[in-house]
Design a protein that fits this description.
This protein folds into two domains: 94 residues, Pseudouridine synthase I, catalytic domain, N-terminal subdomain (Alpha-Beta Plaits); 133 residues, Alpha-Beta Plaits (2-Layer Sandwich). 19% of the residues lie in helices and 30% in strands. It has four helices and ten strands, in the order βαββαβββαβββαβ. Strands 1, 2, 3, 4, 5, 6, 7, 8, 9 and 10 form a ten-stranded mixed beta sheet that branches. Helix 3 crosses helix 4. The chain is globular, with a radius of gyration of 19 Å.
Length: 241
């Protein structure tokens, strides 16, 4: 009997070329599919809630796959974790209905972007923050962050994507968009219905431009995005169903 398994996983994206399988390159999806296919004795496709880019981290990504193997779920989690590289860990596994899809069934996702404002960045923080010690008007950045709330066409904040050629809408709904100072860090948090390629990193780049005084009107979405912020500061925090 076939079983649909939903897993939550965390990963350090620094050593991977993103979620999606790419021939000859280490990816999160590729690592999982190789292990599960070996266990199943035939190819297993692992679907994710979204395709995180190269270098982006996840505190709680959601994925799903279908197998016939009757292995109990705790044993499955232990076996997969034993074979995965240490930078990827399956946090939990559960059986779900056969047509569950982690991307199409998702109701909301939350991302965090972490910037370090200290003059010196510890080498132990370096892989997980965007170190930006230069002057910024953080109040202006906080003001602009709120402008992204609501339903907008985010075409200007999206990188070109192979799915974009399909003519799909770039309209997305942002439920909350906030920037706050926590100690030496500036944390940008965004929760929305879905996200386009590089969308969050382009929003952060735009916030930085506002902090530098390069964006005059903070009451509406800017007419162009700022430079794409580095991938290593971005974390997929959670996916809601």
């Amino acid at each position: 009997m076939m079983r649909r398994i939903k897993i939550k996983l965390a990963y350090d994206g620094g050593g991977f070329h993103g979620w999606q399988v790419q021939p000859g390159l280490p990816t999160i999806q590729g690592s999982l599919e190789q292990i599960l296919s070996d266990m199943e004795g035939q190819p297993v496709h692992v679907a994710g809630s979204g395709r995180t880019d190269a270098g982006v981290h996840a505190l709680e990504q959601v994925a799903a796959f279908t197998i016939a193997n009757p292995i109990p779920l705790p044993n499955l989690r232990r076996a997969v974790n034993r074979l995965l590289p240490p930078a990827i860990r399956v946090l939990s596994a559960e059986e779900v209905h056969s047509d569950f899809h982690p991307r199409f069934d998702a109701q909301a996702k939350t991302y965090e972007y972490r910037m370090l404002r200290d003059e010196v960045c510890s080498p132990f923080e370096w892989p997980y923050v965007h170190h930006y010690p230069y002057p910024l008007d953080e109040e202006r950045m906080i003001q602009l962050a709120a402008v992204f709330n609501g339903e907008h066409d985010f075409t200007l904040f999206a990188a070109s994507d192979d799915r974009g050629a399909e003519g799909k809408t770039k309209v997305r709904t942002v439920f909350s968009s906030t920037l706050e100072r926590r100690g030496a860090r500036l944390i940008y948090a965004i929760r929305g219905s879905g996200f386009l390629k590089h969308m969050v990193r382009n929003i952060v780049g735009t916030l930085i431009e506002a902090g530098k005084g390069n964006i005059a009107d903070l009451s509406v979405l800017p007419v162009e995005s700022g430079p794409t912020a580095p991938a290593k500061g971005l974390f997929l925090v959670s996916v809601e169903y």
